[in-house]
Amino acid sequence: MKNKTILFDLQLSSFNSKGDIIYKSDSNYIFMRGLVNAIKDDYNVVLLSPIKDKTLTKDVILVDYGRDYYDARFYYDWKNVERCILEYSPDLIWTNNPIWVQFYISSLRILKKDIPIITYNHYIDLPGAEKYDAKHSVSFLQIDGMTRANLTLVNSEYGKKLVVQGMEKLLGKCNIINQIYSFPPPCLDYIQTDIHENYIVYNHRLSPTPYYKTAIDRFEQIIKRYPIEVIFTNPSHKDTLDFSFNHRYVEINEFRDYLDLLSKSLLSISCIFDKGAQWSMSLVDSIACRLPVLIPNVPGYVEIVPSDYPYFYETNGECISKFEDICKNHSSHIEKMNVYAKYVIDSYGLSKTRDRFNNIVGLVI
Predict the structure, then answer these.
(1) Which region holds residue 132: left if phi is over 0, alpha if psi is between -120 and 50, else beta?
(2) E strand spans, 149-281
(3) CA R_g for the chain
(4) pLDDT of amino acid 265
(5) Predicted structure pTM score
(6) pLDDT tens-place string over residues 252-307
(7) How far apart are CA 73 and CA 66, in angstroms?
(8) Which of 108, 119, 141, 305 sits most deeply, having the most CB atoms within 10 A of its CB?
């Protein structure tokens, strides 16, 4: 399908206090790198982006997304987006921001174009959502965009259920469920080594948002039980936090540098946010690097690995017990991770991502 052109937008939301984009640690950037690498031999890829990074694709159109987290969600550069649509005549528009769907629809009406739109809600912000209760979580603008798109993709079956319930709560029962599909994040790359040092990488966003702060507090309670160094690589908000995070910061310029650092750590504690915060890229990265990863036993995360995965936990106490055992008997746990690393690489690698993408795109073009 190399004659088909797909227009993507790179939604970046990691900014420092000066309004500078910190893009190489941004989850959207990492996700887009994996996706583009998986499909670049099959499609012509055009990217709307606030940065001119041609390692992603040769056709990068600079657009203005504003200068903070909220601008990046709501600001729409009408002039440059519409110029790009006219110049490249894409066969499909893929947006990682459901809120932008209504903007694209308006542009297409102005330009008298009929182009299908897929939105991928790669991070379903559902703090406090339990038992599929999305009552106070899915914003109306997100839901509006997901109902207007030709297809909506989310990162897990659990996330799909949350989105469907949110839609039904606001819109009532309607013929929308068949428009929503699960599309797990790609495993872009990995490094496996037998050299491990006494540190752990905190590979999540640093943010003063309450449910991130709760997760950070939880993390601190766990790691203080064992003499291990903590390293963090994501600079987002680190200079604007209203609490201390007194650990070593390592600046990362390339994704392979991050993987090299991650792969040499003892273990990982991933996805420790509130039960509704559906995110799994750090989990997939860590397991592919053959690290034991402690994971809360909640819907969404249990979909990522086989049911016999040995490092789920129900309580902080159980997590602490497993954490200490991994640190003390590390080599046996690394050996145990071989089978799960292979599972993740086989299930979420570039080949599988390419197949999933082609199947999804085939539904609309």
Answers:
(1) left
(2) 151-154, 180-182, 199-202, 229-232, 248-249, 268-269
(3) 20
(4) 95
(5) 0.86
(6) 777 888 899 999 999 998 755 555 555 567 788 899 999 999 988 877 788 889 99
(7) 9
(8) 119
